């Protein structure tokens, strides 16, 4: 019996060993035909189940990825792609206003593979709840209005600013303040300042990243004249006339109006107030005097204020015409010049008193012929005039002068003499026979005609002009 049991156990052990060896041989054979292979993929992370009234603060971008390495037979691994995996972060596990670690759940629908590594198993998530609040607007006034005026109740539009954003930013906000500066204002003030937000501790709070219903606040502060006060414009009383040739071109008064104090009925009768007379007789330049007001009895300025009047006086400006014979300069020795036309018309613009006192030699026309030889030229004339006296050149006619430059004729040229005819008292003179000869005068060829005395010799130039 014992032998049978031992034989059975021995056979069973042999069978098991054979089975293991067979499986190993089979696996080696399969692996040889379809070996194992590792594959790397980058899987995008999907954030799910985020509450509708929340915003994902961290991570700042939802474009997050997890890198994985998996293993499997080549026939299984080769066709696997990113679409066979999902990486999910469930935001319903996050707590508002806190940073928490949420697991990255990785799943796959590919069979017969093993995930060897995963780069991110947990991700830090920060969710903030979105809230909306109406923050009241407050006004901070600096300065004051003018004496004799009263200030009404300021108007703010809007009175509340709606702020939307994360609870951690919106909840601490307490008030939005706008500041308006007053500087002796005499009429209704309208401003559109930008509000500054403060938290409940009274410190300036940032609203960067928050949605605001209004970026500016329109502030209206009504300002009206008080009873017994009135603002009136000032009229300047000028006496006399400036010097001949001068005129008043502008009158400015500073300030242009004045606040008066008196009985309301008396103030209502005034449309404007006038300065004391300012004498401008014979003046030739601007000046700025300090003046007093000519006020009716019972009416006085509400505040002490200096009043200045700026009176601008200028000369009349007109044009004058001067006809000038050009002066030639720079002409080389041995040459002479002929101008066409012989006069130049010059138009000058400037103050009338200056034009009336110009001397003849202060306006001149110059033709510069420096470096020019014999020939015909069109030369632009140079105009000399006293620019420093406030005058300007308006036009020159003609704009160019035609200049003919020729050599001068000298007296040293000789003419070939001819034998004079003799005369007697008994016989009439014979008809003289002219003789001609060629000569050169001033570099120009000419023909000399010699006729016996008493007829004088004649000289003809190439143009057949006659010279004696």
Quick description:
By secondary structure, the chain is mostly beta strands.
Key descriptive features of the protein:
single chain; 468 residues; mainly beta; RNA Polymerase Alpha Subunit, Chain A, domain 2; 5 domains; 5-stranded mixed beta sheet; 40 strands; disordered C terminus
Indicate the topology.
Blueprint: H1 2-33, E1 36-48, E2 54-58, E3 65-73, H2 74-77, E4 85-90, E5 99-103, E6 105-108, E7 114-118, E8 122-145, E9 149-151, E10 155-157, E11 160-166, H3 167-170, E12 173-185, E13 189-191, E14 196-199, E15 211-212, E16 218-221, E17 223-225, E18 229-235, E19 238-239, E20 246-254, E21 257-261, H4 264-268, E22 272-275, E23 278-279, E24 290-291, E25 293-294, E26 300-301, E27 307-315, E28 317-324, E29 327-329, E30 335-340, E31 344-351, H5 352-356, E32 364-368, E33 375-379, E34 382-384, E35 392-397, E36 401-407, E37 435-441, E38 444-450, E39 458-460, E40 466-467
Parallel strand pairs: 1-4, 8-12, 18-22, 19-23, 29-32
Antiparallel strand pairs: 1-3, 2-8, 3-7, 4-6, 5-8, 8-11, 9-17, 10-16, 11-15, 12-14, 13-16, 18-21, 20-27, 21-26, 22-25, 24-27, 28-31, 30-36, 31-35, 32-34, 33-36, 37-38, 38-39, 39-40
């Amino acid at each position: 019996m014992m032998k049978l049991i031992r034989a059975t156990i021995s056979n069973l052990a042999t069978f098991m060993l054979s089975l293991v060896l067979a499986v190993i041989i089979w696996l080696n054979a399969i692996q040889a035909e379809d070996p194992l292979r590792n594959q790397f993929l980058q899987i995008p992370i999907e954030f799910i189940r985020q509450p509708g009234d929340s915003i994902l603060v961290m991570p700042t971008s939802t474009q997050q990825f997890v890198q994985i390495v998996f293993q499997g037979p080549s026939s299984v691994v080769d066709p696997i792609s990113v679409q066979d995996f999902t990486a999910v972060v469930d935001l319903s596990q996050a707590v508002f206003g806190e940073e928490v670690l949420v697991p990255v759940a990785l799943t796959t629908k590919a069979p017969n593979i093993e995930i060897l590594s995963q780069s991110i198993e947990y991700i830090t998530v920060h969710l903030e709840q979105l809230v909306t609040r109406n923050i009241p607007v407050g006004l901070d006034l600096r300065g004051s209005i003018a004496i004799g005026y009263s200030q009404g109740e300021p108007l703010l539009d809007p009175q509340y600013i709606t702020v939307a954003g994360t609870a951690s930013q919106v909840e601490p906000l307490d008030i939005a303040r706008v500041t308006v500066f007053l500087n002796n204002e005499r009429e209704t003030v309208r401003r559109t300042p930008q509000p500054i937000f403060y938290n409940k501790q009274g410190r300036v709070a940032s609203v960067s990243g928050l949605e605001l219903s209004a970026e500016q606040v329109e502030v209206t502060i009504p300002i009206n004249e008080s009873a017994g006060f009135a603002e009136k414009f000032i009229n300047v009383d000028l006496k006399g006339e400036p010097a001949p040739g001068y005129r008043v071109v502008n009158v400015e008064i500073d300030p242009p109006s004045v606040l008066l104090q008196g009985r309301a009925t008396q103030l209502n009768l005034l449309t404007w107030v006038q300065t004391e007379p300012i004498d401008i007789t014979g003046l030739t330049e601007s000046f700025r005097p300090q003046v007093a007001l000519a006020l009716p009895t019972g009416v006085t300025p509400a505040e002490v204020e200096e009043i200045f009047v700026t009176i601008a006086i200028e000369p009349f400006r007109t044009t004058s015409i001067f006809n000038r014979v050009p002066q030639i300069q720079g002409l080389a020795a041995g040459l002479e010049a002929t101008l066409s036309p012989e006069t130049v018309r010059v138009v000058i613009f400037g103050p009338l008193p200056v034009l009336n006192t110009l001397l003849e030699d202060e306006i001149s026309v110059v033709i510069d012929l420096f470096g020019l030889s014999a020939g015909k030229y069109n030369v632009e004339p140079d105009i000399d005039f006293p620019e420093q006296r406030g005058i300007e050149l308006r036009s020159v006619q003609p704009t160019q002068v035609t200049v003919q430059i020729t050599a001068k004729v000298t007296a040293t040229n000789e003419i070939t003499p001819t034998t004079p005819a003799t005369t007697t008292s008994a016989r009439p003179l014979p008809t003289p026979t002219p003789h001609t000869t060629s000569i050169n005068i001033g570099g120009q060829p000419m023909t000399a005609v010699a006729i016996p005395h008493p007829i004088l010799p004649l000289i003809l130039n190439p143009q057949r002009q006659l010279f004696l």
